[in-house]
Amino acid sequence: MSYLHTIIKSIAGLVVMAAASNAFGQSVPSAAEIATLPQWAQKMYSPHPNVFEVDSLFRLYFKNNPFVKSYHTQYYKRWRRKYEHYINEDGFIVQPDDSAERSSMQQYLATIHTGRASNWSPVGSILVRSELGMQGHSQSNIYCIDQSKSHPNILFCGTEPGEIYKSTNGGMLWQCVSEPYQFGNAGAQNWGSGVSAISIHPVNPNIVFAAGNGGVFRTLNGGATWSHVLVQNDFEPNELLVHPANPLLVFAAANKGLYRSSDGGDTWSLLFGQKSYDIKCNTANSAVMYLVKNSPSLKKCEFFISTDTGATWALQSNGWYHSTDPDRTDGGARIAVTPANPNRIYAYLIGESKANDYGFIGVYRSDDGGQSWTLPNGPAGGPYTQSHPNLAYGSPSWTYHQGFYNCAIMASETDPDKILVGGLSLWRSDDGAHTFLPVAGYNNGPLQMHVDMQDFRSSGGHYWITTDGGIYFSTDFFNTQPEFRTQGIRASDYWGFGSGWNEDVLVGGLYHNGNLAYHENYGAGTFLSLGGGEAATGYVNPGKNRYTYFSDLGGVILPANITLPLAYFSVGKFPNESYIAAESGEMEFHPHCYNTAFVSSENQLWRTDDGGSAFTLIHTFGNQPLNHIKYIEICSSNPQVMYVTQQPASGSAGTLWKTTDGGQNWSTVSIPPGNSRWMLISINPVNPDELWLAYPNGSNATKFLKPTTEEPHGLTLLPKP
């Protein structure tokens, strides 16, 4: 691994630290369901889990069982990422209080700003194409979107990595308007997560509110600058609403409660302390407002009405969902209203009404402004059938869904009987929620759209849907193929990364979006979608740069021109990979021969001499397969000298190994104390005894380490920068 690769990997880790954590969007299952789960999941859902123990049990379980994506593996992924930087050396989650958290983040951002000596610019993906140069649908996960009512060409959207983008031409092209405030310029802010809620002032499109886990932010100048107007940690926002008739009223519905501002966002009051999922205004009388929120005691979602612009609220339960089953869970809800009939309201409820439900309760309907409710397509929850489909999961053969993370509903502005409902896939009803038909996604609907629905919005005959893949626009309520309007949004969330040397090639495995590849012939910012899952993968042959490697695809030969087809070749083994920062293995090529490469597999190191087709075992490090080998370094001037890092299945003490005979014999290298569970290494290409080491999760005093001449086989502390 070169200095450049180490720098890029380190920067990727810092970006993750800046983003801090993503909102879950998934609730804890019932106690009865948890009791049936594998031990790793039971430990994860326990009140005070040890992360190292959960990690070890997770590895052990999927060593002995085929990996099947489920609600719980997705929860693990988001849970692990959320608390990644709050794990102490004993493996427990320790979060600082709000003031300490904010102080630490501001110091971090200021350090980046004052210490940055070089300029970096984004290279993409800015436009994604599928094979043969066709339009791609796997670019960026867009959490939220809003269109200006007064200036329809102006839109804002929020992304999973924590950026805000603005379009001034109806979504045809987007520009980031949050980067200086995310990455440490003067007056820096941090969203605390992905940006999951956004709302534009109804008259002045320069005034915009956006929210992440750090609270609510506001711009008064169209995104040129942002201020932090509601400071909250673990806010987990679900909806923002600037009141259409009185823009001084602003509402924030979040897992931390329902907040209301009556002075345009300067000050806020807490109306409810329970999880609040969605808030909408009646389309004819905006003084009438609707709210869905959690009842912790009843373990269900409830519906409230306000007739005084949100100052007071009254519970409405006539015909509303009700369950007393001990295994019920509340997964959340979304509301849809329509100007075609101001008294028509839809509420899409998710969760479990009883044991053996799988994430979907029902779409409830009111024809009298929320005073009473019916369930046109019953019963509440399962059993699910072709005529009573589960709108949350992807296929009748699955039990997998993603809870509130994929929960959206929208009604037609011209026909109150037409609605669109989004879970993993997109569904439609043309008869007021009595029956549902597939539209796109895993359900084999007629339209081509990315799966995992995020946010649905309508305004003036314009309909918008955001997904894990990007933004879709329609003027006919998605009756025909929509336009994919994501150009300019370079918010792809990379798990893995690889680059070429002789040709300009970039590859990587993405969260949600499979694998993308760039070649210098494709055009600036244009990437090719290769397909695949969500692997932390992507490697490039340093001699034949269009030969690339992906654990979920195998070997892929990139076309020299994006309009040409892909070609494939077989690969016998791939390294240990992880979507946790600084925890992946490598495909490390020999500096003198590009057909020779080394990969890790559990606690073993393997070598190929034919470009990846066949592998030979070089060494087994200890007798514990779950103690994974991660990073590999080979000295260019003396390839007999190699280093590898080994991560324990549990605990914070990692191991650094060295060989001086090309891998026949290995010895441990003395390393300084600190949290060495995660290590990054980089070797001086002309001096095999000079190795640089970083502890990404170490304390500030033990993050960066350097070699010394006094201890050629050891390392000492490098002063904190």
Radius of gyration over C-alpha positions, nearest whole angstrom: 26 Å
Please give the share of residues in helix.
10-25%
Number of beta strands: 48
* Biggest sheet: strand arrangement: 1-32-31-30-29
Give the class from helix and strand content and strand pairing. Answer: mainly beta
Could you give the distance between the termini? 23 Å
| Chain-averaged pLDDT | 90
Apparent shape: globular
- How much of the residues is beta strand, in percent? 25-35%
For the biggest sheet, the summary is: 5 strands, mixed
Low-confidence stretches: 1-23, 183-188, 708-721
The number of helical elements comes to 7
What are the key terms here?
721 residues; mainly beta; four-stranded antiparallel sheet; 7 helices; 10% helix; disordered N terminus
Describe this structure in words.
The protein has 721 residues and is mainly beta. It has 7 helices and 48 strands. Strands 1-32-31-30-29 form a 5-stranded mixed beta sheet, with no helix packed on it. The longest helix is centred in the first third of the chain and has 18 residues. The radius of gyration is 26 Å and the shape is globular. It starts with a helix and ends with a strand. The N terminus and C terminus are likely disordered.
Concise overview:
With 721 residues, the chain is mainly β.
Write the layout of secondary structure elements.
Blueprint (H helix, E strand, L loop, with lengths): L2 H17 L11 H4 L4 H6 L6 H14 L6 H12 L15 H18 L11 E3 L12 E6 L7 E5 L4 E4 L7 E2 L2 H4 L14 E4 L7 E5 L2 E5 L7 E5 L5 E6 L7 E5 L2 E5 L7 E4 L3 E6 L7 E7 L4 E7 L7 E3 L12 E9 L7 E8 L7 E7 L41 E4 L7 E4 L3 E4 L7 E4 L12 E7 L2 E6 L3 E4 L8 E2 L13 E2 L5 E5 L5 E5 L6 E6 L7 E2 L6 E4 L3 E4 L9 E3 L17 E4 L2 E9 L2 E5 L7 E5 L8 E6 L7 E5 L8 E5 L7 E2 L11 E5 L2 E8 L9 E4 L7 E3 L4
